[in-house]
Amino acid sequence: MAAPLTEIHVSRAPGERRVALLRDGRLEGFRLERPARPDGVGDVVRGRVVAVMPALSGAFVELPGGESGFLPANETEARRLPPEGTRLALRVLRAAQGGKGARVSARVADRPGEGVLARGADQALRWAAQFPDSRVLTDSPAELARLRGALGPRASLGLPLDDVLEAEIEALHGPEVALDGGGRLILSPLPALTAVDVDSGGADPVAVNARAIPEFARQMRLRDLAGPILLDVAGLTTRQRAALEPALRAALGGDSLVEYLGLGPLGLFEMRRRRIHPPLHEVLADQALAQGLAMLRQAAREAAAAPARRMALHAPTPVLEALRALPGALAEYAEAARHELALREAPIPEVTDA
């Protein structure tokens, strides 16, 4: 059996980078990145130990920009925590979440300098390393130059994401996933856990559950869900639900971040997925910025299709302020379109001629 054709598509728009992993044409991975605000995973930084906490088997550290992090004792040489005030090189293992700082490791070669000593690889390069036979395609000459610097001729210029993929990626922004043949998944990320419900929509629950389980595992990867995750399938008695465990285990088998915990007393399948990068719903939590960048992407496409047109973005004040606050986004648009985007306050968002 031939290995699946793996492609990595990198689509660049002002202020953001969308990276899609396709295997035999099917979307199997997605990451939304904002280069001006990287999540820091993989970065090597200069940090300072500010509080050793033996009860927590670790230490709190101060990172560049005044951000905090946590250094576990098992991520230090010989499992010994350095004294308070020590300055050392640290690698970021896990992005910050909520009020919790980044998880860091001191198991990294020291190097001179302060602040950020080295940037970690972005998602396209991580997937390129994971799938060495993959093709890497981008719709951006600037991204092509960057990728070729790391990957050589393996990276090439390609067309933008097609309408089908665009629609599937857009659907990741919402809480519902329609299942082929009927039924749907409803995903509810909460601060403490993520609850996922299978709604049969009146269809045969046995058939709907059979379709829902592999799609649930796929959506968990696409959205980068993390932490405790509970799955409630449609209908079925506790015994009938237990019969679904082999299918669920098989669907989760390719995800090294997942630990399956079993069928709980409430009839819910319980699992835990290790967090590394922020889940997609956290990236999109600033709705004003998400809306502004989507409109900026639309304006950039229209300007590219008609270079003589000068575009204006009409939007509520919070959207305009969010765009102005994101370093480089509006300048990136202006450089590509060869004119600045006019920003105008309006209650209804739209892109028009200036």
Topology readout:
Blueprint: E1 6-13, E2 16-23, E3 26-33, E4 44-53, E5 58-62, E6 68-72, E7 87-94, E8 102-105, E9 116-118, H1 123-130, E10 135-138, H2 141-151, E11 155-157, H3 163-171, E12 176-178, E13 184-189, E14 194-199, H4 205-222, E15 227-232, H5 238-242, H6 245-252, E16 258-263, E17 269-273, H7 280-283, H8 287-305, E18 311-315, H9 317-325, H10 329-337, E19 342-345, E20 350-353
Parallel strand pairs: 1-10, 6-8, 10-11, 14-15, 18-19
Antiparallel strand pairs: 1-2, 2-3, 4-5, 4-7, 4-9, 5-6, 7-8, 12-13, 13-14, 15-17, 16-17, 18-20
Describe this structure as you would to a colleague:
- The chain is of the alpha+beta class and 354 residues long.
- The protein folds into four domains: 6-32 and 122-166, no CATH class; 44-118, OB fold (Dihydrolipoamide Acetyltransferase, E2P); 174-273; 286-353, no CATH class.
- The protein is 28% helix and 31% strand.
- The chain has helices at 123-130, 141-151, 163-171, 205-222, 238-242, 245-252, 280-283, 287-305, 317-325, 329-337; strands at 6-13, 16-23, 26-33, 44-53, 58-62, 68-72, 87-94, 102-105, 116-118, 135-138, 155-157, 176-178, 184-189, 194-199, 227-232, 258-263, 269-273, 311-315, 342-345, 350-353.
- Strands 12-13-14-15-17-16 form a six-stranded mixed sheet, covered by helices on one side. Strands 3-2-1-10-11 form a five-stranded mixed sheet, sandwiched between helices.
- α8 packs parallel to α10.
- The relative contact order is 0.11.
